[in-house]
Amino acid sequence: MFSLESGSGFWNPVLWVLVVFVLFLLFYGIRGFGRSTYKKGTEQTKVFLSGNKETSAEEMHVKASNLYWGFTTSMKSLYSVLRKMHTGNTSDYILWFVLVLAVLFLIMGVM
Amino acid sequence: MIEYIPFIAVVAMIIIGLYTVVFRRNLIKIVIGISIIESGVNLFLIILGYRDGGVAPIFTSLPPGTSFPEGMVLPVPQALTLTSIVIGVAVLALMLSLVMHIYRKYGTLDVQKIRRLKE
Amino acid sequence: MTFLETLLQQSPVLIIATPLLSAFLMPLVSRIHAKVRDVFALVVLGVTSCFVGLLASDVLSHGPRIYIFGAQNLSFPLVRILFEVDSMGVFMAIITVMLASIAVVYSWSFLHQQDGLDKYYTLLLLVVTSALGMELTGDIFNFFVFLEISCIASCALIAFWVDEGEALEAAFKYIVVSSIGALFVLFAIGIFYAQYNALNIATLAHLLQFTFLDKIVLAILLVSLGMKAGLAPMHMWMPDSYGRAPPSIILIIMSATLASVYGILRVMFTLYGNVLTTSLRFSLPAHVIIGWILIALAIVSILIGVIMALVQTDLLRLIGYAGVAEIGYMFLAIGTSIVALGTSYATVALHGGLFHILNDALDIGLLFLVAGAIYYVTKKRSLDDISGLARSMKFTTVFFIIGALAVAGMPPLNGFTSKFLIYESVYQVNPILSIIALLGSILLLAIFIKVLYAAFLGPELPELKDVKEAPRSMLLAMGFLAVFAVVIGLFPNLVLDTLVKPAATALLDHAQYISMVVGGL
User: Fold this and answer.
1) Of C41, C166, C252, C513, which one is least surrounded by beta carbons within 10 A?
2) B45 at interface of C, judged by CB pairs closer than 8 A
C-alpha cells in the first residue's frame, strides 16, 4: 500500500524515513564517543581561515550573484550563447516559434 | 486553378503577418501584423463554408426554388468566424491599450528598446 | 430522478457557469464590502470545487460522461457543442480548482491594500473558467475559445501592477505570444473542419486518416500549445511574465499553462490516438518520431531551464526558469510514453508525467508563494538585497525548504515520487535521458540552495531589521501546499491509485472516449 512500483524497482517512503531515522540514531550514538574535553574560549573553538583574520559576518557574506562564480566562469562560453539567445525582444520570441514550426514541418514533410 | 487563389491568399496573409511581427520594430506594426494573421485565419474559415451560387443559410427566408440544404453556404464556419472576430477585437483592444501604457512608461515604441526583462 | 442525480447530470456546465457568472457579479458584490468580496470569491470556488468533486466521484467510478448543450440526446448531424468529461479532465479540473482556491486565500493578505481588486477577482475567476473549460470540453473549437479567454484574462492579470513598466512589457509579450499561438490553433481547427466536416474531438479522432494535412495540423498544434505551455526554446515569455505578475496570480496562470499541457495530451493520445501506430517512411511508426520530437524539446527545456535559473538574481524569475525545467520533465515522460507506446514502461512513464503535473503545481506554486511572501515583507526582488530572513520568518523558511527539496526531487517529498517513475521509465528508452534528468534535478537543488543561503541564511541586513513574519492567510495558503507536498510524498499511492492511474488509463484508452460520442449516434 505504501510502496510505489515502477516495473523495475520500487520506492517506499515510509521505509526510507525509518532507515534515515535509524541511521540518525546510529550517528548520534557514534558522536557520543567523541571527546568533549576541548577548552572553551581558547583558540580551539575559533574559526580557522588559513591564518587570515576573521571579519564581521556582514563582510563575509557572499552575495547571491557571486555564489556560483566558479561554475559560471568555467561555463562562460555556454552562458554567453544562452544570454545572447534570451534577448528579451518580443519579435525574437515569435522567431523561435516560427523556427520550431519550420523544423517540425520539415520533419512531418519528410516522414 | 482559380479556386486555389483564396487559399494562396490565406497563406500569404499569414506569412505577411508573421513577417511583420518578426521584422518590424514598431509595436503598433506588430499589433497590425497579428491583426493580419487573424484576418488570414478568418478568411480561411470563410472560404471553407463557401459554395458556388449558395445563398445565406437562413432557413425561414430561403429564396423560392433553392434546394435545401445543398443550395446554402455552410453556417458553421460563419459562426466560427463571428466568434473569432469578436475574440480578435478583444485581443486587439487589450494589445493597443498595453502599447499605450508602454509608451507612457518607456517613452518609445521600438520593440528593441522595450526589453528590460531579458536573460 | 433525485436532486443529486440532476445536479450530477448538469455538473459539467455548472462547473463552467458558476465561476463565469460570478466573475461578472464580482463588481456588484464588491460594492457591498471588501470583506464580502473576498469571501465571495472563495465561496464561488468552493461551490465549483463541490461540483468538481461530485463529477469526479462519478466519472472515476462510472466512466466518462457527456453533456450536450441544447439537446437531451445525441443526434445527427452533430453540430452541437458538447462536453466530454473523462478521468483525465477531472484530474486536471481538481488541480485547477485547488490552485485557484489557494491563490484566493493568499490574495486576501497579499493584495489587501491595493485598489482595483474587484477587477482582479473578476479576471481571476475568468482564468479559472477558461482553464476548466479547456479541460472539460469535447469540442475543439470550444477549446480554442477557452484558450483565447485564458490569454486575454491572464494578460490583464499579468499587467495588474500597471504602474510598473516591466509588468506592462511582460503582459505585452504574453499577449503577443499567446494570441499568435491561439490563432495558429484556430488555423489548425480550420484545416480539420475542411477535411472532416466536424469539430468534435471524438468524431475527428474517429475520422482521422493521417493525411499530409493532418501531419501539418499535428505540428501546428504541438508547437502552438507547446509555446503556451512553456516548452523551450519558446519558453521565454514564461520567466518574463512569472517574474512580473503578482505572485498570488501566478498560481492561476500556472493552471492555465497546465491546461495547455492537457491540450497536448488530448491531441496526442485521443485525437491522434488511432493513427499513432501508422507506419511511415523508413518503416518507422509515427509515434516513435513524434515521441522523439517531444523528448528533444523536453531535454532542451530541462537544460535551458536549470542553466538559466542558476544565474538569475531576481527570485521570481529564477523560479520561473525552474518552472520551465519542470515542464520539461512532464514532456520527457509524455514523450517517453509515446515512443514506447504499448509497452509496460510507457504506462509507468505516463503515470510519472501526469503525477508530475500535480507535483509541479504544488511545488512550484509553493515556491512562488514563498517568493511572494518575501516580496511582501521586504519589497525587494533581487536576491542580492536580502539576507538573514530566517530569523524573522521562521514558517516561511520551513515552507521554502519543503518546496525547494520537493522541486529538486529529494526523497521523501512529492517531487521525488513522480521523478522516480520518470527516471525508471526513461532509462528503458535511453539511459542518457535518465542521466540528463538526474543532472537537472541536481542543478535544481544547487539553485535552491543558493536561494536558501542568500535569502534566509547569512547576517541580518540593517534595513531589514524590522521585517515580520508574513500575514496569517498567506501562511495558511503556503501551509496547505506544504502539507500536500509532504503527505503526497509519504503516501504517493493515495493520489496515484485514485486519480493518476485512472487518468492515464483514460488517455491510453482512446477507443472508449471516441465510442462515447460516435457509438451514440
Assistant:
1) C166
2) yes
**19-48 in chain B: CB under 8 A from chain A:** 21-25, 30
Pick the closest to residue C425 from C326, C497, C351, C354 (CA basis).
Answer: C351
**pLDDT per residue as tens digits for the range C53-71:** 999 999 999 989 888 887 7
Regarding an ipTM greater than 0.90, the answer is yes
Contacts of C129 (CB under 8 A, 6+ apart): C16, C19, C20, C23, C146, C149
Output the CATH code of domain B2-55+68-106: 1.10.287.3510
Is B1's Cβ below 8 Å from some Cβ in A? no
Contact check, Cβ <8 Å, B45/C190? yes
Average pLDDT over every residue of A78-105: 93
Q: Do B115 and A89 touch (CB under 8 A)?
A: yes
Q: Which residue did the predictor score with more confidence, A60 or C333?
A: C333
Residue C521 reports pLDDT greater than 60: no
- The residues with which A52 forms a beta bridge, in sequence order, are A49
Q: Tell me: the pLDDT tens digits for C26-50?
A: 999 999 998 999 999 999 999 999 9
Residue the block writes with cell 498567506 = C474
Sign of the dihedral defined by the CA atoms of residues B16, B22, B27, B31, in that order: positive
Q: What residue spans define the domains of chain C? A: 1-275, 280-490
Task: Please tell me the distance from the alpha carbon of residue C381 to that of residue C226, in angstroms, as a whole number.
Answer: 29
Candidate from A3-12, C68-77, C490-499 with smallest mean pLDDT: C68-77
Cα dihedral B69, B74, B78, B80, rounded to 10, equals: 110
In whole angstroms, what is the distance from residue C81 CA to residue C71 CA? 10
User: Any alpha helices (H) in C313-413, and if so which ranges?
Assistant: 315-339, 344-378, 394-407
**Chain C neighbours, 3+ Cβ pairs < 8 A:** A, B
Interchain contact, C243 vs B105, CB within 8 Å: no
Q: Please tell me the distance from the alpha carbon of residue C264 to that of residue C278, in angstroms, as a whole number.
A: 19
- Each residue's pLDDT tens digit, C215-224: 999 999 999 9
- Which among C377, C383, C370 is positioned nearest to C315, based on CA atoms? C383
Give the pLDDT of residue A56. 78
Q: How far apart are the first and last CA of chain A?
A: 45
Q: Which of C289, C424, C451 sits opposite A7 (nearest CB)?
A: C424
Residue C21 has pLDDT above 90, yes or no: yes
State how far the Cα of C155 lies from the Cα of C375, in Å rounded to an integer: 21
Interface probe for C, chosen from A11, A16, A78, A100 (most Cβ of C below 10 Å), is A100
Instruction: Cell 542580492: give the residue.
Output: C384
CB neighbours of residue B56 within 10 Å: 11
Is A111 close to C284, i.e. CB distance below 8 A? yes
Q: Which chains touch B (3 or more CB pairs under 8 A)?
A: A, C
The residues, any chain, with a CB within 8 Å of residue B82's CB and separated by 6 or more, are: none
Sequence-distant (≥ 6) Cβ neighbours of residue C283 within 8 angstroms = none
